[in-house]
Amino acid sequence: MAYDNGVTYMFVQHSNIYLMIASRQNCNAVSLLFFLHRVVDVFKHYFEELEEESLRDNFVVVYELLDEMMDFGYPQYTEARILSEFIKTDAYRMEVTQRPPMAVTNAVSWRSEGLQFKKNEVFLDVIESVNILVNSNGQIVRSDVVGALKMRTYLSGMPECKLGLNDRVLLEAQGRATKGKAIDLEDIKFHQCVRLARFENDRTISFIPPDGSFALMTYRLSTQLSSPLTRFSNGLKA
Questions:
Q1: What whole-number distance in Å separates Cα of residue 23 and Cα of residue 234?
Q2: Contact at 8 Å (CB) between 219 and 147?
Q3: Which among 40, 9, 36, 32 is positioned nearest to 22, based on CA atoms?
Q4: In whole angstroms, what is the distance from residue 64 CA to residue 20 CA?
Q5: What is the per-residue burial (b if ≥16 Cβ within 10 Å, else e) of 7-38?
Q6: Checking phi first, is residue 5 left (phi over 0); if not, alpha (psi -120 to 50) or beta?
Q7: What is the per-residue pLDDT for 94?
């Protein structure tokens, strides 16, 4: 992020490509950076590899996508699967769509109607990375865990999914003893499908999931961790 002469520039880098947004107003920087990351995801969905050559060869599709994803400076539709229903590349253009899909105007804009599967399946992966800062004496100065709940859903219709966590806030509100088994979640970020009011009320993650793969939530844990490194070098030899 940079500021110059009354203009704020926010950008993200993917491979050798920089995507940037410029604004003269006091905008929500986090939402704009999140939008840029969604633009990267949509381009990767369409072109497989987001490179300079792929953007140059498909500049017409890029203009169409940007026109649908943002109107008058406001983010609109960022779900690649929904966009692909009415913005098609030449590789799989079969027919001209006379009108946009119903999902664009529905309250649930991230999921198409009428999905049917022979077998309903849900896959949930918990992916965590550990960040540890260690001083020269081998003592841990700072540590945290950054995690994400990633899902793959193949469900028919408009399913209602619920997910519960052993969140310390919920257990204490219910008068239940935690005994060290609860977790303190920080910096929680949900997918747009999650009902935030329901989560604030009873800490239940309730949502109608998109079809396919998506990140349900990301979080951070600030806990004391034992270092996985047991030996440190005090010097380097050439």
A1: 49
A2: yes
A3: 9
A4: 18
A5: ebebebebeeeebebeeeeeeeeeebbebbeb
A6: left
A7: 37
Q: Which residue has the higher pLDDT, 219 or 4?
A: 219
**Is 232's pLDDT higher than 70?**
no
| Residue 225 identity | L
pTM: 0.55
Q: What is the pLDDT of residues 160-190, one digit of tens each?
A: 999 887 655 555 555 555 555 556 778 888 9
Cα dist from 218 to 29, 61, 117, 128, whole Å = 18, 31, 28, 10
Specify the pLDDT at position 148. 92
**Which residue in this structure is represented by tokens 């994400």?**
148
Cα–Cα dist 12/214, whole Å: 20
Q: Token pair for residue 212?
A: 């396919």
Ordered structural domains, the chain, with CATH: 2-104 (3.30.450.60), 121-221 (2.60.40.1170)
Beta strands, E only, the chain: 2-4, 7-14, 17-23, 70-71, 74-75, 121-134, 140-154, 161-163, 186-190, 205-207, 212-221
**How buried is 65 (Cβ within 10 angstroms: 0-12 exposed, 13-18 middle, 19+ buried)?**
buried
Q: For tokens 């920089």, what's the residue?
A: 18
Kindly tell me if the per-residue pLDDT of 103 is higher than 60: no
Find where tokens 């110059």 sit: 4
